[in-house]
Design a protein that fits this description.
6 strands; 64% helix; two-stranded antiparallel ribbon; Na+/H+ antiporter like fold; 484 residues; Alpha-Beta Plaits; four-stranded antiparallel sheet; single chain
Length: 484
């Protein structure tokens, strides 16, 4: 008998509220909040004390797909091209070549050690090949950890852009398993269509979104979040209907809009950040409901072996090969390898074999869930410790410099960037008047510890100072080199 509507709504409210409390407690306990979200879903499910029976892969996939679209769009909105541009090429290789190499390595291990058939092994590798941006940066923020140099923008862009390749490989392998008459060559046109249409649609929809938000001139400010919320689903649905990769489109559209100028940009970015959190909580709760904990012990050993190989062998090898042409230190490569955190995307991808009715799809779903759980629990909990061990953490915390009014950012037509004075930067120890800032650059505010003050020419910058600078894009690029 289905639950009464009021009971269902009450249960949803309680679960979301508990998830928020769990996120608050996760920083103190040192356990990623995502583990609590999954645990709440499992406790509320049919095998837990909550007793809510839920076994619907289609609804799970629907919720997961919508949630991922909003999470990727929010990530794109917050990605500043001036920051990620220096690492765009290595990030692109990690999100494409790195995903393919992870798929091949995990597939080989699944065939040789776990007894999977070739295509089934590759399918497992494809499903667990992508990393989770939201998981990584929520852990870094909750543990007040910041990474040095180019690591943060590299991880941000890689984990935000590698879902499309993982989705393509998963759908392609499901297609090959469903129709044995097809060969691997049939995936090439699918690849070109998905990424060609997805990339073009993302750019076009992003530009169109900026124009629409600026030109529509709504009387009620509260309708602007409604407008951008509808745009995300529209972009994903239209791109997918045309045969393109919808996730690539929403991420690129978010990045195009985030690097453009439109009304209420600051407030809309904050709104989508909150919406992404709600989507993340909802997605993990539903995924926790979908899994049956009583079935996990049967695949525990297999899942442990797969997770260990993924974390210790497949991810590091993929990272080292993809970053081979670039000048990253050994410690930086090891950190990128360890931060290959698996999140909700692999569990959502594991629903595709379920819906396709493939043999062993149930076992595959439980196996992927187990791998993700271990990754979030082991890697997620140890990220701050590993960063300190490898000496790639920044001594300053990752807090925001200040909370300026939203209208200030909305009306400003240039770029605002937060700079951190590093010990080895050319600006460290110098007075502002001695730094030779470009004429187009204005230093707006300085934070030193808990103190905020206005920049003056006679103020000497110290290690760890956080400086808010305003300029056009060219000026920002120049000042970044001075502080880098």
């Amino acid at each position: 008998m289905p639950l009464a509507i009021e009971v269902l709504l009450f249960s949803i409210g309680v679960l979301i509220l508990l998830a928020i409390f769990a996120n608050k407690a996760s920083g103190r306990l040192g356990v990623p909040a995502l583990v609590f979200f999954l645990a709440l879903g499992m406790l509320a499910g049919s095998d837990g004390p909550g007793g809510i029976y839920f076994d619907n892969p289609w609804q799970t996939q629907l919720v997961g797909t919508a949630a991922l679209a909003y999470i990727l769009f929010a990530g794109g909105l917050e990605t500043r091209w001036s920051v990620v541009r220096p690492v765009a090429l290595p990030a692109l290789l990690l999100s494409t070549l790195g995903v393919v190499l992870t798929t091949l390595l995990v597939g080989w291990f699944a065939m040789q050690v776990l007894g999977f058939a070739p295509l089934e092994g590759l399918l497992l590798g494809a499903i667990v090949s992508s990393t989770d941006a939201a998981a990584v940066f929520s852990i870094l923020r909750s543990r007040d950890t910041r990474l040095r140099g180019k690591l943060e923008p590299l991880l941000e862009m890689e984990s935000g852009s590698n879902d499309p390749m993982a989705i393509f490989l998963t759908l392609g392998l499901v297609r090959l398993l469903s129709d044995p008459g097809l060969g691997p060559a049939s995936l090439l046109p699918m690849f070109l269509i998905q990424f060609g249409i997805g990339g073009l649609a993302g750019f076009v929809f992003g530009k169109a979104g900026i124009w629409l938000v600026n030109q529509i001139k709504l009387r009620e400010d509260g309708l602007y979040p409604v407008l951008t919320t509808s745009l995300v689903i529209l972009i994903y649905g239209a791109t997918t209907a045309l045969g393109g990769n919808g996730f690539l489109a929403v991420y690129l559209a978010g990045m195009v809009m985030g690097n453009g100028v439109f009304v209420h940009r600051r407030s809309l970015t904050r709104y989508h950040d909150g919406l992404a959190w709600l989507m993340q909580i909802t997605m993990f709760l539903v995924l926790g409901l979908q899994v049956f904990p009583s079935q996990l012990p049967a695949i525990a050993l297999t899942g442990l072996l797969a997770a260990a190989f993924l974390m210790v062998v497949a991810r590091p090898l993929s990272v080292f090969v993809a970053l081979l042409p670039f000048r990253f230190t050994l410690c930086e490569k090891l950190m990128v390898s360890w931060v290959g955190l698996r999140g909700a995307a692999p569990i959502v991808l594991a629903t595709f074999p379920l819906l396709a009715g493939l043999e062993k799809s149930g076992t595959l779903f439980n196996l992927v869930f187990f791998v993700v759980l271990l990754s979030v629990l082991l890697q997620g909990s140890s990220i701050p410790f590993v960063a300190r061990l490898l000496r790639v953490n920044h001594p300053e915390s990752a807090g925001a410099i200040t909370n300026l009014p939203d209208d200030f950012f909305d009306k400003y037509q240039g770029e605002l960037v937060e700079l951190i004075v590093k010990p080895n930067s050319s600006a460290c120890g110098k007075r502002i008047v001695e730094i030779n800032l470009p004429d187009s650059v204005l230093l707006v505010l300085i934070q030193r510890g808990k103190n905020l003050f206005l920049p003056r020419g006679d103020i000497a910058l110290e290690t760890g100072d956080r400086v808010l600078a305003a300029s056009d894009r060219q000026g920002i690029a120049e000042v970044l080199s001075l502080f880098g």
